[in-house]
Amino acid sequence: MRIEKLKEEDIGGYRKLVKIIIQNSPYETDRSKNEEVRKFSKDYLLMGLRDKGRIYLIGKMKKKKVAFCSAFSYGGGLFWLEWIGVNKDLRRRGIAGQMLRSLEKRLKRKRIHKILTITRVKNKESIKMLQGEGWKRRALLPHYWNKATFFLWEKEIE
Ligand SMILES: CC(C)(COP(=O)(O)OP(=O)(O)OC[C@H]1O[C@@H](n2cnc3c(N)ncnc32)[C@H](O)[C@@H]1OP(=O)(O)O)[C@@H](O)C(=O)NCCC(=O)NCCS
User: 94: burial class by Cβ within 10 Å (0-12, 13-18, 19+)?
Assistant: First the structure.
């Protein structure tokens, strides 16, 4: 798999992949799916591409777009992992791990010292994947985003 920073010509394919993965997530509600997909509108992505504090990565196998992740600066040397997703037919092959390691390499070059994220407490795939990649679970966040319960995670960038 090749992992690249998102380019303008790939926005259409990136959005398609994001939409399929979010719409098929068993953990999101209809309301949260719509809210999340809106974060990947064409205008929003175009704006993000011009923002040095934003990273959109895309994983490609041959020409097929198979994985995405998005992250943004939180200031103070911190970054926030917003979303990561892998094509349903290609899961459990270490692709998400590769995406995260590529993201971390890029963050290290930007002198970022820590990355944070949240997962829904029921998202067992995501939880296992983060644990496997060395992320630490730091807090339980009840009644959080859209009133659901989440875990807060962080990882030192070394
Ligand atoms: C979470 C997600 C990104 C993981 O992607 P992936 O490429 O399958 O993950 P990896 O292959 O790198 O998995 C690494 C480890 O995580 C764990 N894991 C991942 N999926 C798992 C599952 N379904 N059941 C149990 N453990 C799982 C395993 O320990 C796995 O290592 P192993 O296969 O050697 O046992 C993927 O399931 C996905 O796209 N989910 C939908 C979107 C989502 O919920 N994103 C997270 C919210 S932001």
Answer: middle
* pTM score of the predicted model: 0.96
* Phi/psi of residue 18, nearest 5 degrees: -60, -45
- Closest Cα to atom 27 of ligand 1: 125
Decide if 83 contacts 68 (C-beta within 8 A): yes
What tens digit of pLDDT does each residue of 68-86 get?
999 999 999 999 999 999 9
CA 93 to chain centroid, in Å, comes to 17
Q: What is the mean pLDDT of residues 150-158?
A: 97
Delineate the domains of the chain, giving CATH numbers in brackets: 2-156 (3.40.630.30)
Please report the atom of ligand 1 found closest to the CA of residue 67. Answer: 39
Radius of gyration of the chain (CA): 15
Q: Pick the residue whose CA is nearest to atom 5 on ligand 1.
A: 96
